Structure formats: structure tokens, C-alpha cells
Amino acid sequence: MKPAPFAYCDPQTLEEALELLARHGEEAKILAGGQTLGPLLNMRLAMPAVLIDINGIAALEHRRADTKGLAIGALTRQSALEDDADVGALQPLLALTLPQIAHRAIRNRGTVGGSLAHADPAAEWPAIATLLGAELIVQSRARGTRIIPVQEFFITHLTTALAADEILCEVRLPPSAPGSGYAVLEFARRHGDFALAGAMARLTRDAAGRLRDPRLVLFGVGKRPERASCAEAMLAGARPEAGLFAAAAQTAAGETDPYDDLHASARYRRHLAGVLAGRALEQAFARTGEDGHA
Ligand SMILES: Cc1cc2nc3c(=O)[nH]c(=O)nc-3n(C[C@H](O)[C@H](O)[C@H](O)COP(=O)(O)OP(=O)(O)OC[C@H]3O[C@@H](n4cnc5c(N)ncnc54)[C@H](O)[C@@H]3O)c2cc1C
To answer: Has residue 280 been placed in a domain?
Structure first.
């Protein structure tokens, strides 16, 4: 199929792009890597009057590391981060997760911002941002810069707090606490497919061997990735003993609100989420005290 006709603009600066968005609003769509938008246009599930191609805006393709963590420009390609050993060392969750996103050819074009703005509940970037407590930096001509905490950014399936005249410019990830262990586990029918369910965990031990600020996120099992807050509360301050992770995983599965679709039933997704959560907690714990990942 072919897309419906549209006007094409390729601004070379953020100011130009914001001006175009301010002018066209709901009629316009931003084109980043095109890995999601391309098929949507071809199937006429998206029919914007104006396509604003942001690939020429070099200022959106940056990364910066400092004591506040890692700031990643929205136009950064998934594969560029995957190939950057410094990024993996600073944020071990990225080194573990990026290779699991789609296929390498898709990661070569697909951008961090495109994945976050699209907000697929089964996608890895929204789950990463949720687990780490990211901040999303967005800009519009009318309101300037807004910093949106991740818990306010993802609203529901394919819906974020981004307004029609806003561009997602940067995601900021807080620094990884020394000795934290991470794990990401997901299940898909075919390599490269979106996960039917996935679990991400981060565990850190204090000097007394108690778990500090544990994080567990389940994705693909609801309208957006969610922290399993009851399970996290069970883990916080506990000394890992036999059965703790299995019990927390069961609690986490009970916190999910999965859906039936042609790929899997809600019941199956909840079961899968529990199994993956248990394994992710075990793996993350085994990695605590190391450099964070195997
Ligand atoms: C076969 C296949 C398998 C895939 N499997 C996975 C997978 O397993 N896991 C996964 O996470 N992803 C997967 N993807 C999606 C892929 O990761 C894409 O990179 C991602 O969804 C969109 O990124 P993009 O840069 O291509 O965005 P685009 O397709 O260009 O845009 C996507 C949407 O975001 C908007 N947008 C883009 N950038 C911005 C911005 N800076 N500000 C505001 N709005 C913006 C666009 O207007 C559009 O609505 C898969 C894709 C394909 C084709």
C-alpha cells in the first residue's frame, strides 16, 4: 500500500521544527527513524497532512554523561547506543536491553525518542525509562521547555503526555548506584518480535545485605509499563531468603492488568509475567556487587 498524500518538510534546526509544529499542530506528524511511522503511513493508519522529518537536526542526536546521569538526545539511534561501551558501563541496563529490541536493521534507524513517543506498552524503552525513573525533556514554541517525570509521561496504550505542538528532545536517566544488579527477561514467539510479556529488575544491597530501593517493572502486560509497587514494597529492606523472590514475583503478577489479543490470553500473559519476574529478580540479585551485569 502507499501512504495518503502529505507535504514533506525537513527542518535543519529545532526552532524550525517547533515553528512548523506550532503552525500545523494535529495535522502534522514527526518522522524520526520511520520504523513505526513508515508502516502506519503505508497502511493509512496515520494520514498526516504534513510530515516533519527531524533527521536533519543534529542537535537532537547527542549524549552527555555527568554526575546527574546520562542524557540522551531523542534522535539517537538504538544501535549507536548499543555500540557505545561507555554507555553500557554507565548504565548496565542499556547494555542488557538494547540488543533485545527488534532486529539490528531496525535499531540502525529506530531512535530512542521515537520509541518513547510511540509508547508501545510492550516496547523496551518505555520500560527502561519507568524502571530507572527517567525525565523526559520536551519543547514547544508556545511553552518552551517542560521536564516530565516518567510516571506522568506514559498515559496509556500509545498515548503520552506530549502535546501536539511538542517535540521530545531528550531523555535523562539517573546514574546507576554502584553494585546494582540488573536483569531483563522477555518472551516473544519469534526473535525480534515485541514481547508477549517482559520483566526488568534492579536490585542493590546495603552494607547489612538488605535490599535498597528495589525496582521491578513488567511490560507487555498492561496499557503501559508499570512498576510492581506491592512487590517492590515486599523486597525493600528485606534480606533475600529462600522464597522471597518467588513470593514477590507472584505478587507482581497479581498487580498486572493484562489483556486478551490474538497473540495471547490475559491469563497466559499474567502467568508469564510472574515467571519472568521471578527469574529477573534472581538474575539481578546474582549480579549485585559486580559491575552490574554479566
Ligand atoms: C518488525 C519490527 C519489530 C519491532 N520490534 C520492536 C521491539 O521488539 N521492541 C521495541 O521496543 N520496538 C520494536 N520496534 C519498533 C522500533 O524500536 C522503532 O524504533 C520505534 O518504535 C520507533 O522509533 P522510530 O525512530 O522509528 O520512530 P518513528 O517511526 O519515526 O516515529 C514513531 C512515532 O513517534 C513520533 N515521534 C518520533 N520521534 C519523536 C520526537 N522526537 N518527538 C515527538 N514525537 C516523535 C512519530 O511522530 C510517530 O508517531 C519494532 C519495529 C519493527 C518494524
So the answer is: yes
